C-alpha cells in the first residue's frame, strides 16, 4: 500500500515538474514571438497611448466603456476585447475563447491604429497574457485592475500568484487605477510596497479611496458591479485629464457589450444571457437580477456549467453561488473539451450540499435551456451564464456552432 502511494506521489510530482517545464518553454517561445512582432512593427505602442484593463470580472465591460468614452470625447481610439478587436471601422475576430490574442496580432493591430492616426488603444489584458509574455514590449500609458477573485487556479499555483501577475500591470503603467474595496488586490499591494512607488490611484464605494463617486445615484438600475466598472473608468478619464462633466455625460449613452446582461426576451417572463463564468461573477449577476427584476416576487431560474480543462477548484464554489441566489438551478455542459461533462456537473453539484435549493443536471445545453423556459411563468427570470457572446461550444476536440442568445430566440420563435 505504501509502495503504491509512493508511486502515485512520484507520478504526480513528475507531472507537475513536467508541466512547469513545458510552461516555461512556452513562455520563452511567446517572448521570442513578442520580440519579433515588436521589431517587425517598430514597437508601435511607443507611438500611441495604450490603456490596459485587467481583473477577474468586468474586464470586457470596462474595456468597452473606456473605448466608448474616449470615442465620445472625440478621441481616435482602437481596442481589443474578449468580444472583438476594432481599429477604426474595421472589426477583427480575435479567436475562439480568447481575450488577449497572440503577440503578432496584438502588435499588428496597435501598428494599424498608429497608422490610422489614433491616439488611444484600449487593450483587455489577461493574467495569462502577462505571465506568458504575450504583451511583452507593450508600453502602457495607464491601466485598470477591476478586481481579483477565484479564477485560473489551474494555471496559477495560488490566488496570491494570480494576483501578483495581475498587479504586474502596475509596474508597466504610468498610472494605475486599482479597486480599494477588493481584498485580494489590496493585500497584494500591501505585501509589495514597491507597487506604491508607481502612480496608483484607488477607486471604491466602501473603503477610503481617491475616487468614491457612486454612479448608482445617476443610474438607478446600475448593478453594484457595474457601478465599480463605471467608477474605475471615471477615475481613469480624470487621470488622463478629461473633465468630469464630459465623462459623466457620455456614460448615459453607453450600452453594455454583447453577452453582458443581455435581455434576450422581456415578455411574460424575462430571459437574460451573461458571460459570468466565475463564482464571483455568478453571485454578482444573480444578485443584481434579483434586486432589479424580482423586487416583489417571481422566481429566478439559473442555467450554467463550467469549462473543462480549466480551474476545477471553482466548480463547487459556482454551485454555492447559484444556490445562494437562484430559486432553481440547471447544471449543464459548457466547453467540456476532453473532460467528462458528467464529472464536471457533479463537481458543481457538491456546492448545493449546504443548501436546500433544488437543482437538476442536464448535460445537453439546449435541453437545459428548454427546461428553464418551460418552467418559467409570469414575472420569472431565466438567467443563462457562461457563454455570453461566444459563438461556439467545445465538445471533445471539436468546436460546434453555438449561441445561447440564438438558442433562446429559436426556442421562443423570436427569429
Textual characterization of the structure:
The chain contains 13 helices and 16 strands. It is α/β, with parallel strands linked by helices. It folds into two domains: 13-251, 3-Layer(aba) Sandwich (UDP-N-acetylmuramoyl-L-alanine:D-glutamate ligase), CATH 3.40.1190.10; 262-411, Protein-Tyrosine Phosphatase, Chain A. An eight-stranded mixed sheet has the order 4-3-2-5-1-6-7-8, with helices on both faces. The protein has a six-stranded mixed sheet with strand order 9-10-14-11-12-13, sandwiched between helices. Strands 15-16 form a two-stranded antiparallel sheet. Strand 6 (140-145), helix 5 (159-171) and strand 7 (173-179) form a beta-alpha-beta unit. The mean pLDDT is 91.
Compact summary:
The chain is built from 13 helices and 16 strands. The protein has 415 residues and is α/β, with parallel strands linked by helices. The chain has 2 domains: 239 residues, UDP-N-acetylmuramoyl-L-alanine:D-glutamate ligase; 150 residues, Mur ligase, C-terminal domain (Protein-Tyrosine Phosphatase, Chain A, Alpha-Beta Complex), CATH 3.90.190.
Amino acid at each position: 500500500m505504501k509502495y503504491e502511494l509512493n508511486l502515485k506521489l512520484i507520478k504526480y510530482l513528475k507531472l507537475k515538474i513536467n508541466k512547469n517545464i513545458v510552461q516555461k518553454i512556452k513562455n520563452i517561445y511567446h517572448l521570442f514571438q513578442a520580440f519579433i512582432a515588436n521589431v517587425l512593427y517598430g514597437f508601435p505602442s511607443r507611438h500611441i497611448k495604450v490603456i490596459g484593463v485587467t481583473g477577474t470580472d468586468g474586464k470586457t465591460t470596462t474595456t468597452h466603456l473606456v473605448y466608448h468614452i474616449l470615442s465620445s470625447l472625440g478621441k481616435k481610439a482602437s481596442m481589443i476585447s474578449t468580444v472583438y478587436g476594432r481599429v477604426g471601422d474595421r472589426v477583427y475576430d480575435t479567436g475562439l475563447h480568447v481575450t488577449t490574442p497572440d503577440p503578432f496580432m496584438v502588435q499588428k493591430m496597435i501598428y494599424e491604429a498608429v497608422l490610422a492616426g489614433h491616439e488611444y488603444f484600449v487593450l483587455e489584458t489577461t493574467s495569462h497574457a502577462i505571465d506568458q509574455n504575450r504583451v511583452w514590449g507593450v508600453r502602457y500609458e495607464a491601466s485598470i485592475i477591476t478586481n481579483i477573485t477565484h479564477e485560473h487556479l489551474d494555471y496559477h499555483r495560488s490566488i496570491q500568484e494570480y494576483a501578483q501577475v495581475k498587479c504586474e500591470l502596475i509596474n508597466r503603467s504610468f498610472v494605475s487605477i486599482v479597486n480599494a474595496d477588493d481584498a485580494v488586490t489590496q493585500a497584494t499591494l500591501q505585501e509589495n510596497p514597491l507597487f506604491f512607488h508607481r502612480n496608483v490611484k484607488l477607486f471604491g464605494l466602501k473603503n477610503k479611496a481617491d475616487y468614491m463617486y457612486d454612479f448608482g445615484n445617476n443610474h438607478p438600475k446600475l448593478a453594484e458591479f457595474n457601478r465599480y466598472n463605471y467608477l474605475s473608468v471615471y477615475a481613469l478619464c480624470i487621470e488622463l485629464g478629461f473633465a468630469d462633466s464630459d465623462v459623466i455625460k457620455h456614460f448615459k449613452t453607453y450600452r453594455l457589450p454583447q453577452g453582458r446582461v443581455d435581455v434576450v426576451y422581456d415578455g411574460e417572463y424575462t430571459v437574460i444571457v451573461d458571460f459570468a463564468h466565475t463564482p464571483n461573477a455568478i453571485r454578482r449577476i444573480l444578485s443584481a437580477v434579483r434586486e432589479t427584476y424580482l423586487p416583489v416576487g417571481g422566481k429566478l431560474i439559473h442555467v450554467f456549467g463550467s469549462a473543462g480543462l480549466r480551474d476545477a477548484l471553482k466548480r463547487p464554489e459556482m454551485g454555492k453561488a447559484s444556490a445562494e441566489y437562484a430559486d432553481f438551478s440547471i447544471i449543464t455542459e459548457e466547453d467540456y473539451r476532453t473532460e467528462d461533462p458528467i464529472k464536471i456537473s457533479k463537481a458543481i453539484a457538491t456546492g448545493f450540499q449546504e443548501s436546500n435549493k433544488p437543482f437538476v443536471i442536464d448535460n445537453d445545453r439546449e435541453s437545459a435551456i428548454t427546461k428553464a423556459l418551460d418552467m418559467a411563468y409570469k414575472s420569472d427570470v431565466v438567467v443563462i451564464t457562461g457563454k455570453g457572446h461566444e459563438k461556439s461550444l467545445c465538445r471533445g476536440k471539436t468546436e460546434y456552432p453555438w449561441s445561447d442568445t440564438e438558442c433562446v430566440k429559436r426556442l421562443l420563435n423570436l427569429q
